[in-house]
Write a structure and sequence with these properties.
Protein name: Lon proteolytic domain-containing protein
Largest sheet: 6 strands, mixed
Number of strands: 12
Mean pLDDT: 85
Shape: globular
Number of domains: 2
Number of helices: 8
Structural class: alpha/beta
Pfam family, one: Lon_C
CATH topology of the largest domain: Ribosomal Protein S5, domain 2
CATH architecture of the largest domain: 2-Layer Sandwich
InterPro entries: Lon_proteolytic, Lon_Prtase, Ribosomal_Su5_D2-typ_SF, Ribsml_uS5_D2-typ_fold_subgr
Low-confidence stretches: 1-27
Keywords: Signal
Strand order of the largest sheet: 6-1-5-8-11-12
Helix content: 25-40%
Order of helices and strands: HEEEEEHEHHEHEEEHEHEH
Length: 263
């Protein structure tokens, strides 16, 4: 058939399947999620009208400054992400294209994913409380800590929860605030022994932090390179590996000659 067509007509006929394939590829769902900077919340204050940290069984102090946990927002586990979405996200600094399995466990339903994220948040809160009370040498049988953060799941607020509990109970240990009156943001998991772990999405979280007024960002040291990739101007990165290193770094920020680690 092609031999009987003129060259332009033959080219047109050949192009039709290619165009159809490209159109299908553009609109077909792909196994990716598109993420962007999400909300932040000051763990020393309220979120949606409810105190994030409530402590009973020990005196608490009035704090100044802010400790803002950070999040990313991703397309839902049942959302359809097309090639056009992927290309758009690839070239934007305020978007990230991630394998869907890196954001949501493969094969899980939306309900199962929500339950998983809720359980991770609960475990993170328990670990944060234990790490904070252990650092302050306080017994969990006497001091009761309640953590509430609506519409947020996963373990990445662990470090900020821990610092918030310590600031409310003890400040910097000498009558001042851990924040020094600053707006400090950050991310990182924490275990009961105070070890800080990586979380992912830090390049987007730094943008959320800067947007909401932070000047310092606490980042797991293992994610320094990712955090520096799209670092907003005026936001200082402070790498941490443990709860103690985070508190020491915050204390050093207050000293004129203090040595503050950097990425």
């Amino acid at each position: 058939m092609l031999s009987r067509l003129s060259r332009p007509k033959a080219a047109t006929v050949c192009a039709l399947p290619v165009v159809a394939l490209l159109a299908t590829a553009v609109f077909a769902p792909l196994p990716f999620a598109v993420a962007q900077p999400g909300m932040t919340a000051n763990v020393l204050g309220e979120n949606k009208g409810t105190a994030v940290i409530t402590i009973n069984g020990a005196p608490t102090r009035t704090t100044t400054g802010q400790l803002r946990m950070t999040t990313i927002e991703a397309t839902g586990p049942d959302a359809q992400v097309s090639l056009g979405d992927v290309i758009d996200g690839w070239f934007r600094t305020d978007r990230a294209v991630l394998p869907r399995d890196a954001v949501y466990p493969s094969g899980d339903t939306v309900k199962e994913i929500e339950q998983h994220n809720t359980e991770q948040m609960k475990q993170s809160q328990d670990a944060a409380t234990r790490a904070a009370l252990s650092y302050l040498h306080l017994g969990g049988e006497k001091v009761k800590v309640t953590l509430k953060l609506a519409d947020v799941g996963g373990p990445s607020a662990g470090l900020l929860f821990t610092l918030g509990i310590i600031d409310k109970l003890n400040g910097n240990g000498t009558g001042g605030d851990l924040t020094g009156g600053r707006t400090i943001a950050g991310t990182g998991t924490i275990d009961p022994s105070g070890q800080v772990g990586p979380v992912g999405g830090v390049a987007l979280k730094t943008q959320a932090a800067k947007r909401d007024g932070a000047t310092v960002f606490l980042v797991p040291r293992a994610e320094c390179a990712d955090a520096k990739a799209e670092l907003p101007k005026g936001l200082r990165l402070v790498p941490v590996t443990t709860l103690k290193s985070a508190i020491d770094a915050l204390a050093s920020l207050e000293k004129a000659n203090g040595s503050v680690p950097s990425c």
